[in-house]
Amino acid sequence: MIITIDGPSGSGKSTVAQKIAQDRGIFYLNTGLLYRAITYLVYEDPTSPLFGRYDDDIELITRDQLDALPTLAYAYSADGATVFVHGQDIVAKCYATPGLDQVASKLSALPVVREFLLDVQRDIAKQHDVIADGRDCGTVVFPDAEHKIFLTASLDVRAQRRMLDAKVQALGLTFEFVRNDLAERDERDENRAIAPLRIPAGATVIDSSDFSIDQTVEMIIKVVS
Ligand code: DC
Hints:
The chain is α/β, with parallel strands linked by helices. The chain has helices at 13-24, 31-43, 63-67, 91-96, 100-107, 111-127, 137-141, 155-164, 166-171, 175-191, 213-224, and strands at residues 2-6, 27-30, 73-77, 80-85, 88-89, 130-134, 147-152, 204-207. The protein has a single domain (2-224), classed as 3-Layer(aba) Sandwich (Rossmann fold).
């Protein structure tokens, strides 16, 4: 079984998807984390062959170079989703590195990167029943998914939720900065030529602006039951 949840940054997809994975006893596939993990190798890991290739050079990244990257091992357990590189858990770095979000958004607009991660995502879903969250899970990665959800919330609500995140608080970012950052990523994710953020055909659309996480989870469980 495959359930997809797509939606913009900060809509609560991953929190909700993890709770549903626990409730249903299925595997959680956080596709954004895979895009972040590739970005980590380009942006932060000096041993990676693509280290430093996030400016003008980004467009020149090839499939051979991606194939030569250290293996990204995705795992999911009761503690959450993890990616290991060289046996090291890189999740904290994927979320807490300043600027990584924006580079991830740029890298994820490259066809070669999306193609590379397509295989990774589909391979995971061959091994488990999954709930996958991201931007193109219901449109491109798993178009035949049994259940598709599009989860959204207003920009202000998403920015307010981000401000409550301990990782954002640790960086000392202002509401204005966080709101602009989300708006910029929305713009890029929605308008890129390949696999833009779209409501998948047949998806149930949920605007969670006025609902708590638990209320949203309840609504989705009703849809997928
Ligand atoms: O969900 P997130 O914010 O962790 O995702 C990080 C970036 O990856 C985001 O800018 C969009 C991109 N992404 C994507 O293009 N397609 C997906 N299925 C998931 C994430």
